């Protein structure tokens, strides 16, 4: 067995080397890591990079973002067996194309998006023998409108809404895009928080993009025409509820899950938009076809459903389960 899901995704090469992708406690970060193993970090979302200081094959931008977000260093390195390809998910995100000494090519996508958006180019799938892909939206009901349509709908809503608005998106990823959309819509004042500012500063230092938000302070008074961009995790915190009630602000959530009406109610949003940094179902299916692998492993999200879809379409596909030890455990 050459691919397993343990602490992260492990690819064991023919010479015994383990390539460990997106682990909490990867080789080299503790005394338990065997010498010679390689750590890969696909991007700087908190569930993909190590909890402690580590050295990993990753983009310099991912290393700087991870270091800034947790104030614990992540050091970027390279490995001749691993080619990093822009994954199109968030700033700095990469897929890893791993070439085994025996010539087998493994593609680990991490979180991935094939749509080009704002300052991000969509992922361009290479040929590979083995594909390990995320399946966040790996079921047929999750098909998104094209990006230009979604972005235009958001800008129109922002222009037509007189009330202050509170816009919720992940601090790394959608929060930056929401700032750009609010600026395009001509919002009079734009605010965000320290967590988003830390990301803004790092992204702007690496890419040709800037963000015009001011820091939201306790004494800031939101009024008509204002926009406040907040991390998605704050949407149901009491002070946010109180702020919306006191100012008459409308709360808007942005996620691929917004294609499901339940997303609006779960997040207590007034408006929702399917603005996503992942592939939808159709794009995942097209990604697999473009890679044309001999074997596919699915992980994260609708793993079983998407593996079944691929099997029906003629692929040898397996949903990865954590801590499998033998093929019979699948």
From TrEMBL:
GO terms for biological process: double-strand break repair via nonhomologous end joining; interstrand cross-link repair. InterPro entries: RibonucZ/Hydroxyglut_hydro, RMMBL. GO terms for molecular function: 5'-3' DNA exonuclease activity; damaged DNA binding. Residues 271-317 form the Zn-dependent metallo-hydrolase RNA specificity domain. It comes from the Archaea. It holds the Pfam family RMMBL. This is mRNA 3'-end processing factor.
